[in-house]
Target: Integrin beta
Amino acid sequence: MGIVSLYLVLHFWLGTVGGTCSQFSAVSCDECLQLGPQCAWCTLQNFTDFFSIDERCDTPEALLQKGCSGEFVEFSVTNVKVLKDQGLGKRTGHPNVSYIAPQKMRLQLRPGSQLTFQIQVQQPEDHPVDIYYLMDLSGSMIDDLKMIKDLGSTLSKEMANLTSKFRLGFGSFVEKPVLPFIKITREELANPCRNFDFQCPPTFGYRHLLSLTSSTDKFNEIISKQQVSANIDVPEGGFDAIMQAAVCGDRIGWRNDSMKLLVFVSDADSHFGMDSKMSGIVVPNDGECHLDGNNEYSMTAHLEYPTLGQLVDKLVENNILLIFAVTDEQRQNYENYASLIPGATVGVLASDSRNILELIMSSYKELRSEIDLEVLGNTEGLQISFTALCQDGTIIPGHKNCSNVKAGDVVSFNLTVELKGCLAGPRLFYLRPVGFQDTLEIELDSQCVCDCHQTPEANSTHCSRGHGALECGACVCDPGFVGPKCECTEDQDQVSDCRAYEGAEMCSGQGECFCGQCACHPSSFGRVYGAYCECDDFSCLRFRGELCGGHGDCDCGECVCHSGWMGEFCNCSTSTNMCTSADGSICSGRGKCVCGKCECTVPGASGERCERCPTCEDICNLPRSCVECYLKAKDPSDECAVKCNSLHATVSNSTDFEESRAAFCTLQNEDSCLLSFSLVDSDHGSIIYNPKLYACPEPPNAPLIALGVCMSVLVVGIALLVIWKFLVSVHDRKEVAKFEAEKAKAKWQSGTNPLFRSSTSTFKNVTYKSTGQQKSDIS
Model:
């Protein structure tokens, strides 16, 4: 691929602020530059003859308007300089191939400014690849060990289609050989697998077995010689092994220009951080290489497991990409780990590792199809943002990665750097694509010091005959002298003249004392003034966010209200126009006008002008009792006075009143008489004029009414009797007719009634007997 020229875009941002730079009271050129990228400093010597010293700091345009020509304006400009740019890829013909352009830059930024530039990254076509296979050799991995005996050969054949510079290495791990992770009896130490009825070597922490090599036969040979070991707990010491494989680069054989892949194979979780405290190991992991002469981790029983943060630092520092090949039961755990490790991926491993080749190849292709930038170094005080310009033309603001990138593709990134404030010194940081060795080195300087400070005029005659040095057009006074031209001494008597009272803060803390007089500091909020800078025009009360309600001026902390306004906040209108009802009364006679609004005082009254009051009587009904009392009484009594006073009303028989202000009322009393009067509101209450009582009805004729009632009762009684008699007669006639009808229908039988007895009876006298009869009876 030919040289790809750098497309550099500079964007200078001059933020707008409220007001000019002179409002911030900068008294030196350096302070002025630090106010913002829009501020400049005038170095003209006699400039302060017409303006105060803080007026030297302003925008370049404002300084020109004040008479400071361009040659005397100190205005540093944000800029960028490319120090090294050799192009991208092999086709540039450069002996040191780089896949990021440019390679080195210098930025100079004013505080508060930002600039944007573009960098380009190319995906290498034939990139060297180093794969270090780090395997868990605990007892549960015995079937996996058998499955990968030919992994070196098959993996090498697959990788040959992607790169001609492939190397492979091997290491293994089990667990820290200490309690409570293993059993420490003599028999268990010699054979940790004795409970499983087979012989295995003692437990070990991490063992480096094969440095990176292009010989697949050596890899297969090493694999064939491995044996599993055993431990007690389920988590293994895999993170110890990852740390040593990352930091022992010389022993592992990592190449500087290669893509470094560390394949971590396990079926269990891993210990990390302070897990080793259970075994009494309390010394933190130091992140150093501790491989002994036998390539075993010598500090496994002395140093804690590394933390995730330590692993991230060392993997990023050494540019190693981690591939977790774990079983499905552990997938979630390692996905959580991978989310914290840049460039790490997770693949699901079959229970016997039969899919390890496909897993490695898919992870490698996934990593090779993505370009992701990472920022290294000290970026404190900087705000960095990215916009990705991917190879397919998509623009993704806020992203620093592109996907689906093929070998040879070039992607671009717009990088915006914003400086918040001044830096203590030059700042160095780097941009690097994840998995790449090439970096862009960026050196950043903050422009917080004016160039005019480099050539001061010591003991300048401009500064009161040599009482100070002239720097950037302003005097820097010697100790003991003060003033714009060092014309005053720091006399205690003069300083006391700048205090409102003994013990008070000099110039109220809002100014400087020059020659016994206070020079008040300008403020972005308004004007500070007064003999002791004790007053300002912005510290008054606010109403709805507006100073003095927007209807007054702030004078030394108090609101001076405009005409037509009153109150502490100047938020009360003195006009009663908004309180006048349709009938001309104030608040419908049911309230008072306060701040141009009605405040209803009559219970139940509501509305903008108190016009609604369902429970209120109208204006004419209110004085009814007072008027009736005066009209009924022949002489005004105390009772009438009490009633009228309670209504704040007085009665007058005069007809001399202002009719335009009067309310004419006509009412009907309980006797059906009509009351009429005129009601006028005054400052002292209501005045009732010309009350009258008329149109009273005549009294009723009681005898005539009584006679009428009696006659009515008599007539109604007679009528009721006649009706009753008529109804009874009708009823009787119906009953007789009914009886006659039933009698006519009756049919009687002619037979003898068995219950009938004749009315004639025959009796025999037993004492009377004839002779013959007696004889015959005896015989």
Remarks:
- The two ends are 185 Å apart (CA to CA).
